[in-house]
UniProtKB/TrEMBL annotation, chain A:
It is an enzyme of class 1 (oxidoreductase). NCBIfam families: PRK07904.1. This is Decaprenylphospho-beta-D-erythro-pentofuranosid-2-ulose 2-reductase. The keyword Nucleus does not apply. It comes from Streptomyces cylindrosporus. GO terms for molecular function: oxidoreductase activity.
Amino acid sequence: MKDAFGLPQSLLVLGGTSEIALATARRLIARRTRVVWLAGRPSPALEQAAEQLRGCGADVHTVAFDALDPHSHETVLGKVFAEGDIDMVLLAFGILGDQANDERDPAAAVRVAQTNYTGAVSAGLVSARALQAQGHGSLVVLSSVAGERARRSNFIYGSSKAGLDAFAQGLGDALHGTGVHVMVVRPGFVRSKMTAGLPEAPLATTPEAVATAVELGLRRRSETVWVPGTLRAVMSALRHVPRGVFRRLPI
Amino acid sequence: MGDTVTVMPADTAPVIVTGWGRTAPTAARPIRPRTYEEAVAAVRGCGARGAVPRGLGRAYGDAAQNAGGAVLDMTGLDRVHAIDADGGTVLCDAGVSLHRLMEVLLPLGWFVPVTPGTRYVTVGGAIGADIHGKNHHVSGSFSRHVLSLELLTADGEIRTVSSGTPLFDATAGGMGLTGVILTATIRLLPVETSLMSVDTERATDLDDLMARLTADDHRYRYSVAWIDLLARGAATGRAVLTRGDHAPLDALPARARRAPLDFRTPQFPAAPALFPEGLLSRTTVGLFNELWYRKAPRARTGQLQRISTFFHPLDGVPHWNRVYGRGGFVQYQFVVGHGREDALRRIVRRISEHRCPSFLAVLKRFGEADPGWLSFPVPGWTLALDIPAALPGLGGFLDELDEEVAAAGGRVYLAKDSRMRPELLAAMYPRLDDFRALRAELDPRAVFTSDLSRRLAL
């Protein structure tokens, strides 16, 4: 069960090698979390992540999960929920793709969309139903500022996150009053292996900062969390910039 | 009631349930049995996520919540069955509130044996949390005055449980996890009037306070101290002591003597549903505490006060818990034994240094420990305080206090808890294993389950 500060005792991470997810897990383990399920494609990296979290003092299990195989989600996640209540699901999987390449390779672009959007729709709905049955829990969805307004430089990734973001907001409204809390987290540019080699955007942040914001959001039962918080104002302004100007902006 | 139909309420939609502190909301199916048969049917058919009885929802944390399961609202079973006005006992349903009991009993010259800081708790809740009051040093906890009770257990049977049996001691303070209390027979306290004779004095710091409480507590039936936890330096732990007893008839002025057992409870408007967040800041609470301390007389004896003024000042404002805003609040209450005053001093100093904006902090000396396996009181010092849940760093700070309390052999009160680590529980409650064993035998499928029992693996 979550405590008075919204801190979970058990955590299911979908996308178990995500750096943001692992930073969040480390932080929550330091507070209250004792049981962690890392769901992801079986890989040495996943096992390594599990080992690292065990070192923090949690009881960590890994489970084979593929965002691109939505038909398996019911079975895979059902098994996790059958083992005991999950106080928080962190939907953290996602790929950035390679915009320049993906524009020429529609199949690769579709893979971005399927991972970030349709995979999340499936896993989100499966998790939501399980959380609703237990009458409590938080579904924390890692969205992105890229979804707030599609940009020339990464609109394939951006559009997938826009879909995810809208889906998660709607899901949050659908689950309002069921005891399940859906929190959409919109980080800006996060310095991680996913963005390694990319030019850094203004207001860049770190996985640890996202983890801190998630913890605060859980306590406040926030529905939307921007990281850093100033991005909320910045994106609110950018959203209203005329198209002709927006497409010329160096962002 | 003349109600002969015992149709179970159809599958009701889940509603959001919280404790009095309004933190950690979860959804549960509410079921409000109006007869014992309905209660039995509710327990038998409660489903995989079980059920937990709930009274008036005054437990601060998640004791009367059951995410995904059923919450049995017991306030529908609210009959006072029999009063022995000569012997001083009452047999009533568990859903009867202490407020109702006072209304019924005071005109007959009887009072409830123990009352906490609110009258709006049910008899079932009073036993389940084994509540204590300002008279603990004299009278012990509520369950000590319960002669027997009827308990609806997980198998759907109703058992009569007498005081002194293992099942009684597991149920007293058992947080509703041994079954649903349906009725209780309670021994009462005779009173001549409905007024209290109160002595008030100030203590300049914590040591002064403890010295005064130690020296004179035995002279009073009721004793408690409001403590200013924002005072720092030499004034750390300054307090206002209020102690007294039921006023005898001859202490009343002539006019009041005409209706000495009149029970009146002033009501103010309820706190609004939307209270501004952060109204209770260090500044405002600091100011309040300063005023409260200064307005208290240095020493005054024999002041006549209403029962509601002396025992239940907050009951005058319905929904006072809303003043903490949307974020809710945490109540922290611990006890450390006699001889561990060092730990108490350290904790008070730490709270004062941490600047917890707490305007409802009370210190009390407990008497003998109570027989309930999970009963809270042990002989020593208990401190209770409210803190807005939104205070930054509060979770970690309270964890540190837990460590300090556990290291001193003390414990934290489960009826108020909403955030403790499960690991410390066994050290704080040595009879936890007995409790778990009894539950495993009596309720192997864990029909009685609450958010508290899940969180702390009770």
